[in-house]
Write a structure and sequence with these properties.
The chain is α+β, with helices and mostly antiparallel strands. β12 and β13 form a beta hairpin. The longest helix has 15 residues.
């Protein structure tokens, strides 16, 4: 078989609970539904600038959140292109660039702690735990589009590495502060324990998460969170019934808080 035939072959060997997280594979072709593109418009109070000519400006921003299960190669299928760490990161990078994402939050990256640079993004990694699990990554775009209503023109804000600082990092929580002369925000990536963990462990994590985030509550937070919440049995305008789970005790309580 060719390299392209093997690229996604690893999916067929996944256990059912992981296989369902991937798009359908038909005759060796992975059928992917294009991601929905949505703009997040920031109100003027989220922006600050010493220049009068940027009054009334707002930023058009796209944010992506994804649990990738792992960015590491499989020990059993290292020769498959789809399981290669460079291939996985390259595919994610291509998608982020095509959507024009200003911030990309990744859970369960399982990568080493550190900082790396691509032509489009600064990538901050919190690192996995001692067992090689979890690990968050925050991808911050090197340019962010700013639209000035008064001037009716677009401006690209160039984000410098000196504008970014990691203020908190653990295998399940990463906070990167971005302070630009025009806009300031905190990029937060978090991964909550799932229902397989004891209830007290889950409660402790959410309490710690809230305490760490509390100082930044009034300082523009962009949150990419995998809450591992069981939802869907109770629907509303934000939650539909597709692949619904029965809500458990911690499903929405801490998210709403």
């Amino acid at each position: 078989p060719s390299q392209s035939d093997l690229q996604w072959a690893f999916i067929e060997g996944l256990p059912p609970h992981l296989r369902s997280a991937y798009p359908p594979l038909q005759e060796g072709v992975l059928h992917i539904t294009p991601a929905t593109r949505g703009d997040l418009t920031l109100p003027s109070y989220l922006l600050h600038s010493p220049c009068d000519d940027t009054v009334g400006a707002f930023a058009k921003t796209r944010i992506i959140n994804a649990n990738v299960l792992s960015l590491l190669p499989s020990q059993h299928r290292q020769r498959l292109a789809g399981m290669n760490v460079q291939c996985r990161s390259a595919l994610l990078l291509k998608q982020a660039e095509s959507l024009g994402a200003a911030f990309f939050g990744i859970q369960e990256a399982r990568t080493s702690p550190g900082f790396r640079v691509t032509p489009s993004y600064y990538i901050f990694s919190s690192g996995a735990d001692d067992a090689g699990c979890y690990g968050c990554e925050a991808w911050i775009a090197r340019t962010i589009e700013l639209t000035q209503e008064s001037a009716r023109r677009n401006q690209l804000l160039v984000i410098d590495p000196n504008h970014c600082a990691v203020v908190y990092a653990s295998p399940s929580l990463l906070i990167v502060a971005v302070s630009h002369p025009v806009i300031t925000f905190h990029a937060v990536v978090a991964y909550a324990p799932n229902s397989a963990h004891p209830l007290d462990v889950r409660r402790t994590w959410w309490q710690h998460f809230a305490s760490v985030l509390r100082p930044y509550a009034k300082i523009n937070v962009f949150l990419c969170l995998d809450s591992n919440a069981r939802i869907g049995s109770i629907t509303n305008r934000l939650i539909g019934p597709h692949h619904a789970d029965t809500e458990d005790e911690l499903s929405l309580i801490h998210i709403s808080e």
